[in-house]
Amino acid sequence: MVATTLAAALAQAVGVDFEVPDGGETIPLSGFAVVTGFFSVVGIVIAVALLRWSARPAKRFVWTAVSLTAISLVPPLLAGANTATTTALLGLHLVPATVMIPTLARSLRTRTD
Length: 113
Known about the structure:
Elements: H1 2-13, E1 19-20, E2 25-26, H2 29-53, H3 57-72, H4 74-78, H5 83-112
Antiparallel strand pairs: 1-2
C-alpha cells in the first residue's frame, strides 16, 4: 500500500491529475491505498485457499495472480483518461503486483514445494 501510494504521490507531483472522465472525479491518494489494501487481502485469501486445496499452490498462485493483474490493466485503458493518467494508472497496477506476487509465492513455496 505504501509503495503504491508513494508512486501515486510522485506521479501527482510531476503533473498527473488522476482525473477520470467517467464521472469527472479525481482519484485521491487515499483511494490508491484503500484499493491496494483491499486487493492485497484478496490476494492473500487466494493464496491461503490454494495452500489448502492445491497440490502446487505457489505455481497456481503465480498463474492466478498474473492473470488477474493482466485483467486489472483493462479498466484504465477504457476509462478515457488522458495519456499521463492512463500510463500512471497502468504503472500503479504493476507496483503492488511486483511486491505481492513474489512475496506470497515465496511463502507458499517454503511450506510445500
